[in-house]
Every structure is written in C-alpha cells, then in structure tokens.
Design brief:
heterodimer, A: 544 residues, two-stranded antiparallel ribbon, 76% helix, 1% strand, globular, B: alpha/beta, D-Maltodextrin-Binding Protein, domain 2, 41% helix
C-alpha cells in the first residue's frame, strides 16, 4: 500500500483526538476519581453493599430467566417451526424499539396493589410487590429477553442438522438427542446470552428508577449519589463496582467457551428434515402464545392507560392525556427529536469513517482506536454519564467551554455512545468489499474523496442506514447516560416521561409513551422509505 | 480531499459554537413541580417580557448542581426550595444578596437578615392516610403495628421533603433520640421514594396506606385530583418549611432581581393559593382548604443547623438506617 497523504494522517489524528476526548477521557476521569478510602467506605457501608448485591442477584435472575425464555422461543421459531412461528419471530423484536420504562409503567398498572390484574383476579391480594425484586425481574426479563432470543436464534440456525440426524439414526430418541447434541452445541450461545442479559440488567436504569423503591440497585444509587448527595468520588466508586461484575462475567464466559470446540458449520447450513414431536410442538406453541399474551397485555395496558382519566381512581375514557402531555412536554419532545435528528447522521458518518480507517489504513494505535470506539457502547450508561459530568463540567485548555448544560454535551454523548453499532456494521461491510475495487478506482485516478463518495459509501449504504436508524431510535429512548447531562434548555422526552411517572401522572405517561413509540415507528418508516428510494435510484443508474 | 477539510472545520465549529450564542434571558432552577413552576414563569414572562429558560431539579439535586457549577453557573436564580438548602448555599458562597423594597414586605422571621434569600411560601409536614384507614395522630402513632410495612416517605438525601421530616424529628426529639426513632420507623416503612411528592401518589393509588408529605402537595396532587385521602397534622409537633428564592452568585443578577421583586409581589403571591401554598406576603390570599399557620402546633425548627450540618446529619441517618 502506498504511503498515506498528510490529509489522511490529519483525519486519523482528528478522529483519534475526538474518540480520546469523548470516550477515553470521561472514562479515565471516573477511574481517577476513585480513591482507596472511597472503596473502603463502599465495602464497609451497608447502604452501598446492599444495592451492589441486589444488582448482582437481579442480574443473575434476569439472565437466567431471560435466557430460558429466549431459548425456548428461539427453539420454537427456528427448530420446531411451530404454527405462526413468523408472528412469534416478529413479537420477539417489539421490546427493542420501546422506551425503557414502558414495561415498568404497565407493570404498575397491572400488578401494583391497585393494578388491573391484582384488583380483578386476585381480589387485591398481591403475591409480590412490583416495587421490588420480583417486579424488576419480570419487567427486565420482558425488556431484555429479545437479546437472548436473537443470539440463540443465530446459534440454533448455525448448528448443522446432520449431528442431530446422526444421533437419531443411531437410535437416540428426540429428548436424548436434544440433551446430548443440541443443548451442548448451544452452550456458547447460551453463555453469551446469559452474559449479555446480566450486563444489560446491571446497566438498566429506566426500570429500576421507577420500581426499585423497596429494592435498591447500584445503577440508581450511583445516580442518586452523584445528583443528590453530590459525592463524585463515591459515585465513581459505585460506577466502577457496576463495571466489575460485567467484566468478571465476560472473562468467565471467554474462559468456558474458549476451552472447547463448538464448530459444526463449514459452509451453508441445510434445513433439518426431522420434525419435533407432537407434544413438544404443543408445549412450545402454548409457551409462545403465553409469552405473546403477556407482551400484548403489557403494551396493550399502556394503550388503555393512555385514555383513562386518572389511573387508580377514575377510569372514564378521555382523550385529554394526549393534549395535556403534548402541551406540557412540547419542549422535551422537540429537544429529543432535534437531538436525535442531528446526532443520527453524524453518528452514522463517524462510524463509517472510523471503520474505514481501522480496516483500510495502517497506523500506530489502530487497535486502540477500534477498542476505545467500542468502549462507549460496552460500559453501562450510568458510568458514561458520570464520566461526562465529571469531564465536561468546567473549561479546559483543550476545551474552551464548559459543555455541561449545553446542547453539545448531549449531542456528543449520543454520537459516541451510539456510534459503535454503525461502526461494527460498517467494519463487517468493508470486510466484504475487496480492496481491488478501491485499487482499481485509484488507478483510474480517483482521490480519497471521490473514492469515498463513489465506491465506499454506496457499498456501505446498508451499514450506514442501519447505524442511522439505530442511533435515532436509541437517542429517542435512552435515559441512563443522558439523565446526567440534560439541562433546562435541552431536555429530553425520556426525562419528561420519568418526571410524569414520579408525579403519578400514569395516564399522561402512558399517552406520551404511545406518542414516543409512534414517533419512532414513523421515523423508521420514513428512513426505510428513503433508503428504498435511494436503492432504486442506484439500480436505475447501474442499469444505464 | 475536501472531506478532511469539511471534517476538521466541523470539529472546530462544534467546539467553539457554544460560546457564540450566550443569551440574555433569565436562567432559573426550581424545585417546584414543573406544572406549578410553569404557571409562575409564564405569568412572569408576560408581566416583564423577560424570557425564562428553566429547569426542574429536586432541592438536593439543585444544590448539588449549583455546587458543581460554582465557577460557571448555568442558572441565575433558584426558586422554590426549602430554606435550609438556601442556608447551606449561602454558607457555601453560592448565593448573592439581593434587597429591594418588595422583599421588605416579607416579615423578618421568614427571610435571611443579610438578604441572601427570601421566604415566599410556607408548608407544613402532614400525614396522609387512605380513606378507610385509621389515621395516625402523632409521630409515635406511626410506630403502631397496624402501620407496619404501610408507610411511604421520601429519602432525606434526595428530597427536600424527606430532609425536612428528618430535621423536624431532630427538632422535636433531639438528634440522638430522633435517629433512634427513625430506625424504628424504618421497620414500618414500605419503601422510600426519590421525590418528595411521590408518597401521595403511592397512597392515592393504594400502593401503601400512610405517607408523610407536605400539606400543599397532599391537597393539590392528592385530594384535589380525586384520590381518596385524609390529612392529619401530627399533634406533637408539625415540622414546616419556608420556600425561598435567591439570586445565584456569578449569575446574571439583573433579571434575577427582577424575578425576586416579582415573586414577592401581591400578583405572584396570590397565584400561590391556587396551588394550596400559604403565601408569606401578609396581604396575599389563602386558599379556603389550607390550614392557616396560626392554628398549627409548629415545631421549633433548627433551620440553621439543618443547613449547616446537612451532610453530617444525612450521613448519620444513612449509617443508622442503612438506606
């Protein structure tokens, strides 16, 4: 490869500087704010240790239940192909686009002491308190099982059916084949889904901020420690303790999976011809229907709650909640839409640029750039938020303005937190594009800009657009990191929703959740439409 | 190659732009509910023509934010939080004195003698009970077995209400006995909430039977909205708050002063009764559902200590109660 021009070098320098400033620096700031005495205080004080243990227990619970639910659903959809499996496949992805605490709100409406289910069917007798371990376990499982579902669907589809065929041919029954062949081969998928759910539950902020009244968890307590006690050092220690279990889980998972070989596929996987047993299919079908019923109940409750005058007292049908909510929250809604709209394209472009640099260019610190870029996605939002508030509170020599309280800090937070997904998509896309195409273009005299515009971008367009959609949705629905950096002028929809729930405006909160989901769906539809138009145009061009 | 240029200029644009638009409007932080705050702010904007950019933070959060932004405050005026928070802020040098003919109307006992902050409304701590449940009448009643696991109260370290309750208990029992009392009360508590008004909702929705809150919140967020609640004033001593307003040090003092003048004026003080607050301007009206100050057995609140030793008191509470 030829030596890079100074302009590319400058670009590498600029991108690295940005990544260091907006990802590495805030995280370092968190680490450097921890002191030995801070850790000692943490381990000695029950009001720090209890939330820590609570978080770990909850994480393990959510990971276990979520993985089981995800596995059964994935098996039903991918292997058993139960009736209506396409519907179940779709249902499994609904929670991904929902705002973080929509399930928390509906679980209060359903399972609260005065909730729909408890009041109607249990005669006011609650078996568990929603505002505690069980409530959190249920809401987080419903919110995060799709991750397990997607991971395990991938794992199951990659297992070569000949192994199962062989087992059956040699006389093993269905159950024996499942336990001896299918389940062990799924182990890596099961472990990584367990790990992902554990991390997601630990990092979850939206559900516990509403439901953890009786069961303190670390992410919320770290937030309170910073914003209410103003103990930055203590908050930083809690942030590190929030990271630690995830790191340990990650190492353990690597160790277990790294020990054995699970490779069954070389090339394309054929369809299995064997059918599951009738009872198995029936059980799976029932399970899927139950799951769908629970999900529909949760989201349906939000829809019903949106039209109720005063949840808990007066259940007459009104439309006021939408009008009131839109009036009260117009500033927040616009804030979110503007920030999401501005950050999404920047996020997408930055993802492609970094992907291009780390895959196509050779330079010192390439691996570090790649790793650091992924970091903002991997650490819990609370940790990033704490880092941002610590790093950008006051002006520095390299940053002449205090970003705290401005539009920019939210924008940067969105860009750098959401960029890794676009980056990964673009890296995967670039790996599929042969370098010879670029070399051919160069031979024909294209400069970097032309190369980017005519070759790289069109080929990476799917990756770019998926990054774009993802970052828009995330920007609309995120709360854990941004809650630290919102201000009077720039506030967000999710923060507004949280305020509504705290003030007991459950009906307005439900109405606004509906509005948020509609905005997200409309925007996704719009982007999909634009992409489609663009692709058609490209095809017409190509045909000419 | 132009892409590099575009990219670099974009970076510089992003880094330097925030300083170019520094607006002249009033930046206000309030600890009142957004809906209520909006009413005063809109009226103020209409009366004075000054544009207000505001944010709602609970009292503790607001104080923390002011501390963290000490050198470069994003706010000019702090409005609608309990007096002890203002005392702490004054001691930390976060406020700047402001005196005007209009603040002189407020009786001396409701404001700072050095004009750092001025009281604008009064609020009393009360028990709320779901209709059909026997209400507790005194602080010791709360320890009765019938209320076990049924009481909801806000954290002293996240909510002004929660801290005011703790301060009230210390003022009634003395510090040691108050903490002893609270660790017994802790066993009765169903859960703590982050914000001071949340217990009303919990009791209103039937999630718990008893809450400890401010009366104006109980009236407005509870009873006026149709939740089936009763209010009782603890007979062995009613803790109370004085809601204040103050200009923030290093903030924009001119619009801040205008706001303070306006909020103690009769026009603004008469809005308060609509929100069940008891205004401190002696000529302002009081809502007929509110209980006048004179008829309450008020605790002798040690606001000075509450503001000065907030951190110590709260840490001690956390050690003892473990929350």
């Amino acid at each position: 490869m030829e030596r890079e021009g100074w302009k590319i070098k400058l670009l590498i320098f600029a991108v690295s500087a940005l990544v260091l400033l907006f990802i590495a620096y805030p995280l370092l700031k968190v680490f450097s704010s921890c002191t030995a005495s801070g850790f000692i205080h943490f381990f000695k004080a029950p009001y720090f240790m209890r939330p820590f243990f609570n978080s770990c227990c909850l994480g393990a619970g959510v990971a276990t239940v979520g993985t089981i639910v995800g596995f059964v659903l994935a098996y039903a959809v991918e292997r058993a192909k139960v009736p209506f499996f396409r519907v179940f496949d779709l249902i499994g992805t609904i929670p991904v686009i929902a705002p973080p605490f929509i399930v928390a709100i509906s679980s209060i409406m359903l399972f609260g002491r005065n909730g729909f289910v408890v009041r109607r069917f249990l005669e006011g007798h609650e078996f568990f308190s929603v505002y505690g371990f069980w409530g959190l376990l249920i809401t987080e499982t419903l919110a995060y099982f799709p991750t397990a579902f997607l991971v395990l669907k991938g794992t199951l589809s990659a297992i070569h059916p000949t192994f199962e065929e062989a087992s059956r041919s040699m006389g093993a029954g269905r159950a024996r084949t499942f336990w001896k062949i299918t389940a062990p081969l799924c182990l890596p998928g099961i472990l990584s889904s367990f790990l992902l759910l554990f991390i997601e539950s630990l990092a979850d902020f939206g559900n516990p901020i509403i439901l953890s009244g009786g069961y303190q968890v670390l992410s919320v307590q770290a937030y309170l420690q910073i914003t209410a006690v103003y103990d930055m050092g203590g908050g930083a220690v809690m942030a590190i303790m929030l990271l630690l279990p995830s790191l340990i889980a990650y190492v353990v998972q690597k160790y277990i999976v790294g020990q054995r070989s699970f490779v069954t596929v070389a090339g394309k996987v054929p369809r299995s011809t064997r059918k599951s047993g009738k009872t198995t299919i029936l059980c799976l079908e029932l399970f899927c229907l139950l799951l769908v019923a629970v999900i529909l109940l949760c989201y349906g409750m939000i829809l019903i709650g949106a039209f109720v005058r005063l949840w808990g007292v007066d259940y007459s049908f009104v439309f006021d909640n939408f009008i009131k909510g839109l009036q009260m929250g117009s500033q927040y809604i616009w804030g979110s839409m503007i920030l999401a709209g501005v950050s999404a394209p920047i996020t997408g472009i930055l993802g492609i640029i970094i992907a291009y640099l780390v895959t196509r260019k050779k330079f010192l610190g390439r691996k570090v750039l790649e790793f650091t870029s992924m970091l903002a996605f991997a650490v819990p939002g609370t940790v990033i938020g704490i880092g941002y508030i610590m790093a950008f509170n006051e002006p520095h020599w390299f940053m002449p303005w205090a970003l705290q309280g401005t539009f920019w800090i939210i924008l940067f937070l969105f860009v750098f937190r959401n960029m890794p997904v676009g980056l990964q998509a673009a890296t995967a896309g670039l790996a599929q594009i042969d370098v010879t195409i670029e070399e051919a273009a160069r031979t024909l005299g294209a400069g970097n800009f032309i190369l980017f515009k005519k070759i790289i971008f069109p080929l990476l367009a799917p990756a770019f657009f998926s990054g774009l959609i993802y970052s828009f949705v995330r920007a609309m629905t995120q709360i854990s990191a941004v809650i630290f950096v919102v201000s009077g002028k720039w506030n967000l929809f999710t923060v507004f929703l949280l305020g509504l729930v705290e003030n007991g405006e459950l009906s307005i909160a439900a109405a606004m959740s509906v509005v948020l989901v509609v905005i997200v769906l409309l925007m996704m539809g719009f982007l999909k439409f634009v992409i489609h138009r663009w692709q058609v145009k490209q095809m017409v061009k190509a045909a000419w | 190659m132009t892409i590099t240029k575009y990219f670099l200029s974009l970076i510089f644009f992003l880094l330097y732009l925030p300083g170019i638009f520094a607006s002249e409007s009033l930046h206000l932080v309030t600890s009142l509910d957004p809906l209520e705050a909006q009413e005063y702010i809109s009226a103020f904007e209409k009366d004075t023509g000054i544009d207000v950019e505001w944010i709602r933070l609970s009292a503790g959060e607001a104080l923390a934010r002011l501390k963290s932004e000490r050198k470069n405050p994003s706010q000019d005026v702090w409005f609608g939080a309990p007096i002890n928070e203002f005392m702490a802020a004054k001691r930390d040098g976060l406020l700047v004195p402001y005196r005007s003919p209009s603040t002189d109307k407020i009786p001396l006992k409701w404001k700072d003698k050095d004009y750092y902050y001025t009281g604008i409304y009064f609020g009393a701590i009360v028990f709320i009970t779901r209709v059909g449940i026997d209400p507790p009448l005194s602080w010791n009643d709360l320890l009765k077995p019938e209320y076990k696991g049924e009481i909801v109260v806000s954290y002293p370290y996240t909510a002004g209400t929660g801290y005011e309750i703790l301060v009230g208990l210390i003022s009634i029992f003395g510090e040691e006995r108050a903490l002893e009392y609270y660790s017994k009360l802790n066993r009765q508590i169903r859960r703590y909430t982050k914000s001071g008004g949340s217990p009303i909702i919990e009791v209103g929705l039937g999630e718990a039977n008893v809450g400890i809150v401010f009366d104006q919140d109980a009236l407005r967020k509870g009873i006026a909205r149709g939740f089936p609640l009763n209010i009782t004033y603890p007979k062995d001593g009613v803790p109370y708050e004085i809601g204040c307003v103050a200009a923030i040090a290093n903030g924009n003092k001119k619009p801040a002063g205008k706001f303070i003048d306006w909020i103690v004026s009769l026009r603004a003080q008469n809005i308060m009764q609509k929100w069940y607050r008891i205004p401190l301007n002696p000529s302002a009206e009081i809502n007929k559902d509110s209980t006048p100050i004179s008829s309450l057995n008020l605790v002798k609140m040690d606001f000075e200590k509450a503001g000065r030793e907030r951190e110590r008191i709260i840490n001690k509470w956390r050690e003892r109660v473990g929350k």
